[in-house]
């Protein structure tokens, strides 16, 4: 069975942006309509397999997708989700970052119940991670990551939530629908999000 992400790339299905390394596309099977997925073009299963440049581009695109969702769909928030490995619920064997539009009381529960870690468990985990820290520090010294290429939010198509068909029977491509720029009254919450890194 072919990889669902590679199929999106091959068919150019719902692709909002792509360059030589990464793809940003509108998902068809979603938790919330307007959900966007960012993934590398190269078929790499988990985050640890990506080089720093491509991972940086994925993160930059996820951030821009979040801004587009706020402005274009009028979302009140977004969840940025990485399911890295089977234990984290990864269903497609191709690394991706999901950007999920959120509204207050939208019915999607992504709340986890926290539990207190035992002191002994914390000590063991801390000692293991400190040993591994040396490898991480050596890795930083060996590879100074090139900064991610500058991607502008204008490179990403703005999607109107009304153009997204919520039924699974319709397979129309939302990118064929007319693009509608966000022309809404300025929201003070959005202003706080527009910080230049």
How would you portray this structure in words?
The chain is of the alpha+beta class and 197 residues long. It has a single domain (4-110, 146-193), classed as HIT-like (HIT family, subunit A), CATH 3.30.428.10. Helix content is 30%, strand content 13%. It contains 4 helices and 5 strands; from the N terminus they run H-E-E-E-H-E-E-H-H. It has helices spanning 4-11, 52-73, 119-142, 188-193, and strands at 15-18, 22-26, 36-40, 77-81, 97-102. The protein has a 5-stranded antiparallel sheet with strand order 1-2-3-5-4, with helices on both faces. The longest helix is centred in the middle third of the chain and has 24 residues, at 119-142. The radius of gyration is 19 Å and the shape is globular. 21% of the residues are buried.
Tally of alpha and pi helices: 4
Identify the CATH class.
Alpha Beta
Please name the fourth-level CATH homologous superfamily.
HIT-like
Instruction: Give the N-terminus to C-terminus distance in angstroms.
Output: 41 Å
Reported for the largest beta sheet, the result is: 5 strands, antiparallel
Shape, principal axes of CA atoms: globular
Strand order of the largest sheet: 1-2-3-5-4
| CATH-derived architecture | 2-Layer Sandwich
Strand proportion, as a percent range, falls in 5-15%
Q: Could you say what the CATH topology is called?
A: HIT family, subunit A
Average pLDDT reading: 78
Total domain units: 1
Secondary structure topology:
Layout: H1 4-11, E1 15-18, E2 22-26, E3 36-40, H2 52-73, E4 77-81, E5 97-102, H3 119-142, H4 188-193
């Amino acid at each position: 069975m072919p990889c669902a992400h590679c199929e999106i790339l091959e068919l150019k299905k719902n692709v909002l942006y792509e360059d030589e390394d990464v793809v940003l596309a509108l998902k068809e099977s979603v938790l919330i309509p307007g959900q966007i997925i960012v993934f590398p073009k190269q078929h790499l299963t988990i985050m640890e397999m990506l080089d720093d440049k491509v991972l940086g581009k994925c993160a930059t695109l996820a951030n821009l997708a979040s801004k587009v969702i706020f402005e274009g769909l009028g979302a009140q928030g977004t969840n940025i989700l990485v399911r890295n490995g089977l234990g984290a619920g990864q269903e497609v064997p191709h690394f991706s970052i999901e950007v999920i539009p959120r509204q207050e009381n939208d019915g999607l529960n992504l709340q986890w119940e926290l539990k207190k870690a035992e002191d002994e468990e914390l000590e063991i985990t801390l000692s293991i991670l400190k040993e591994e820290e040396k490898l991480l520090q050596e890795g930083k010294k060996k590879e100074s990551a090139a900064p991610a290429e500058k991607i502008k939010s204008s490179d990403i198509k703005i999607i109107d939530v009304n153009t997204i068909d919520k039924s699974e029977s319709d397979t129309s491509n939302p990118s064929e629908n007319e693009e509608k720029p966000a022309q809404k009254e300025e929201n003070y919450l959005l202003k706080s999000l527009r910080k230049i890194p």
